[in-house]
Amino acid sequence: MPMERPDLSQVDPAVQAYIEALEAELERLTHRQRADARVEEALAAPLEPSEPPTTLNLITVSAGGQAKRTPRHLYLRQRRGGMGIFDLETPESDPPAFLTIADESQHLLLITNHARAFRLPVNQLPEAAVRSRGQSLIERLPFRPSERLAIVLPGQPSGYMALVTERGHVRRMRYHFLGDNLRPGTLLFEPQELGAPAAACWTRGEEELFIVTRQGKAIRFAEQRVPHSGCLGIRLDRDDAVVGVAPVQEESSVFLLSADGKGSLRQMAGFAANKAPGAGGKVALKTDHLVGAVTTADGDDLFVISKLGKIIRFQAVEVPAKEGVVQGVNCMALRADETTALAVGRMG
Prior knowledge:
348 residues; mainly beta; four-stranded antiparallel sheet; Neuraminidase
């Protein structure tokens, strides 16, 4: 039977503060219980067919630029913590390094360690089976001898691209600058001054940026605080580097993936935003090697690929959402292997 909250105006202020603290803790525990119940419900429910045939493609690219595209619906869901299936076949010396999802009508935006940008139509990549070899992207583009891929993501017809370097510097660029009129090999900035590109994401222009590092630290701040010329986004320890960036809001959840196959959905409600970019990061996930981060929503699927070329697809709802720092839960079973890249599939 629901109870009405009594009038506490005549109660001693110390007692009133104590009651309010208890109420806040009860609300937090109730929210956590509901989130845990959602995870249990998702794990107990039978797996439904992943999705009907679609023109969306899962694109896997190795560190050396071997790439393939495969219709996304050919990847069947597994339970979180499964072993996955073999995907991109590459030599051990050239493991999978990039994973993204794009429609066959889109372009891929390819950014190199020299901070040069190229565009490539998705449909120019031959469609391949789930387990198959890729074709070289490097041979299609005028790369320099020491040049290699640093970022692979689909082009977008609106918004901004937020790009972060290994050293933590961040820049924002309007979509049209990277559109149809992009000259192949356009220099985006001087990497000798700011560091090589490390991660990028698309934003709507009024969101916040969540930048994560290899050591599991992160910072969150409003993207509009980044000036046109760019700025330092996160201050790093000498032996740390940026590995990911995601667009977020107060109600967002971000999936964080560790190289050991563990992951967590970190709720932004429990990760305070900074007033400005440039500060040191706070621990987002307890790990020695964070692989990356993607913003998730209800109904999304997560894709994770490993160094040995195995890939797993599972529902994001199977990962418990947490407001605090955790080590994560097992998302992919690994044997003498480690995860290297991740992507999120919007199912709506």
